[in-house]
């Protein structure tokens, strides 16, 4: 069985704050067995490392081409969908779907734009701040009495789901969809939005509470198109420098 390589090449696996280099190597091996090649590491504790090479068991090319970033925002540049993997429900959570459904959505979008599947650190998973950069939360439906998967095992499950989804996913519609906003576009919008909310007195930076977190998740559910982000930023700019309409002609 062969998958559609172009789709798999548009899907990146992002590992955040990985503590053990062996897990990075094992994740690379899991990816290569299913035809994935885009590995991105966010602030790994130790990399490169001999243990990562040993655990990769021949998938050293994945490690050699892995992109190492300082922040998750950097790792997600150019993507239009980031799916955060979690073993637990979160307060103020994104929409939560099964890993299978999340992968189906990822592959549908990969026909047109890059996507990312994001994994957190081994001990605590994704932080709330990291989850703010994702638009969807997915969970592997493991045994509820013992749901903690090893990081590499979780990557293997998702890699398998991705391979099967690319095998079974129908060709995209002939009509090209409207371009989705990239993570970069959306992050600039959030920065602009926060600036304006402070300027108009709606957001108190000394006591922000969870306003920006709630707004991020609200817009994240919307799946913003590029043109929609441009409209929203235009409204923000007009709020900062209003131009009242000219009076009607006599």
TrEMBL record:
Domain of life: Bacteria
Matching SUPFAM superfamilies: alpha/beta knot
Annotated EC: 2.1.1.200
Main location group: cytoplasm
PANTHER family recorded: TRNA (CYTIDINE_URIDINE-2'-O-)-METHYLTRANSFERASE TRMJ (PTHR42786:SF2), TRNA/RRNA METHYLTRANSFERASE (PTHR42786)
Family of the protein in this entry: Belongs to the class IV-like SAM-binding methyltransferase superfamily. RNA methyltransferase TrmH family.
Protein name per UniProt: tRNA (cytidine/uridine-2'-O-)-methyltransferase TrmJ
InterPro entries (alphabetical): Alpha/beta_knot_MTases, RNA_MeTrfase_TrmJ/LasT, SpoU_MeTrfase, tRNA_m1G_MTases_N
Gene for this chain: trmJ
Oligomeric form and interacting partners: Homodimer.
Domain called tRNA/rRNA methyltransferase SpoU type: residue spans: 11-160
CDD domains for the chain: SpoU-like_TrmJ
EC category name: transferase
Biological process (GO), any one: methylation
Gene Ontology MF: a single term: methyltransferase activity
Catalytic activity: uridine(32) in tRNA + S-adenosyl-L-methionine = 2'-O-methyluridine(32) in tRNA + S-adenosyl-L-homocysteine + H(+); cytidine(32) in tRNA + S-adenosyl-L-methionine = 2'-O-methylcytidine(32) in tRNA + S-adenosyl-L-homocysteine + H(+)
NCBIfam families named in the record: rRNA_methyl_1
Chain's role: Catalyzes the formation of 2'O-methylated cytidine (Cm32) or 2'O-methylated uridine (Um32) at position 32 in tRNA.
Record key words, sorted: Cytoplasm, Methyltransferase, S-adenosyl-L-methionine, Transferase, tRNA processing
Subcellular location: Cytoplasm
